[in-house]
Amino acid sequence: MEELRAFAQVFEQIRQAYVEEIEDAELFDMAVRGMLLQLDPHSEYLTDERLEDLEQTATGSYIGLGVELAMEQGDLMIVTPLDNSPAAEAGLLSGDIIVRINGEPIHGRSMADALDLLADGTSVELSVFREGTEETFDLTLVHRQIALVSVTSRTIGGDVGYIRIGRFQQGTAEEFVQALEQFENPLAPVSGVILDLRNNPGGLLEAAVEVVSALVDGGVVVSTRGRLPIFNSVHYAAPGQQLTDMPVVVLINRGSASAAEIFAGALQDHQRAVLLGDISFGKGSVQNVVSIDETRSIKLTTARYYTPSERGIQAQGIAPDILVEEGTVAWRADTTAISEASLFRHLENDQAGSDTPELLGMVEGISDIEDVQLAHAVSLIKGISRLGQTR
Q1: Which of 156, 194, 361, 380 is deepest in the core (most CB within 10 A)?
Q2: What is the mean pLDDT of the chain?
């Protein structure tokens, strides 16, 4: 009661004596925003427009720039640029810091202020700082309708299935199962499947649980624990699985967050997949939207996520089984290397074929892959497949 009385007195003093008049409703909004700002980076005050944006992203389409953001020690950090978005096309990366928006400095502002600036107008001018560089760089992004693609698939390296999950949203599980079914075709068998969750910002928990259900035969996927019993839960995978005897590699990086980390952690704990890449973002908290009145809501952090083996994800992330940092591969044959075949008057091989073998391309199709993490994943799948054939 003492604290409430003190709050009421401060409210009244500002209302009566502040140098400029402030409406009661605006002052109330400022107070609510201030409380949420001091909690954690993911608790926030939601206007109708912001709530509508959240609902639209769950369905897979919205108007915007296509970037997931977080406040990190007063800096506006890019968690993930979304696939097929203005942010991704402009070359923004996970970990980039937005220093200015339309010339306005951002450090120290609230997330709400930053989002308001980003939503102002049809185009936005950004000044961005990237680790490892000395100066910021400028770019202009234009708001547009973004179709958030959830699942894409293809075959790479000759016989390796590749599935990209850009985010978990409505319909992701159905699209994922369809992608798996094309790789179960006995007329065109694959040696394994790569699941790419790099720069996947998460999305719907239910969708991630459903996708895990396609790969494991029951068991815990994730549990949540909070202060109130209502926020404690355990989510299970459904019985039955696909690709039972097929090796699976999951690619993650520092832009893999939330539901993507739950997915990766569950497959790792169930020993159903090998995780390759970089450590994930570490967003392991649960947010619930609580309605305040007809036009206002708050998004409040209410619990933490835990993997099936009770590992906490929050601020720790999921560590890959095989660490491979991002980069590109410059494939080239070493024409200067000395070998038996290069010696003058060397004894020739008595079998048909060339006696100057090229190492480049011995793994079918891999020399076409410039993404170093993906190249490692393809090599791993082929190695596991070959090992299984020789047992």
Answers
A1: 194
A2: 90
Instruction: Examine the residue annotation and report whether 382 is marked as an active-site residue of this protein.
Output: no
List the catalytic residue out of 94, 96, 150, 283.
283
Question: Which residues partner with 196 through β-bridges?
Answer: 164, 251
- Rounded Cα–Cα distance for residues 152 and 385 (Å): 23
Residue 390's pLDDT band, with cuts at 50, 70 and 90, is: low
Please say if 85 is a catalytic residue.
Answer: no
pLDDT at 53: 78
Q: Is 309 a catalytic residue?
A: no
Catalytic residue among 83, 196, 269, 278: 269
Residue 306, burial from CB neighbour count under 10 angstroms (0-12, 13-18, 19+): buried
In 3D space, the residue among 289, 286, 288 whose CA is nearest the CA of residue 48 turns out to be: 289
Place of tokens 């990209």: 164
CB atoms within 10 A of CB 351: 6
| HSE value, Cβ hemisphere, 13 Å, CA-based, for 111 | 25
Identify the active-site residue in 258, 280, 297, 367. Answer: 258
pLDDT category at 363 given cuts 50, 70, 90 is low
pLDDT digits (tens, 9 = 90+) for 82-100: 888 999 999 999 999 999 9
Measured distance CA(280)–CA(163) in Å, rounded: 19
pLDDT at 353 (0 to 100): 59
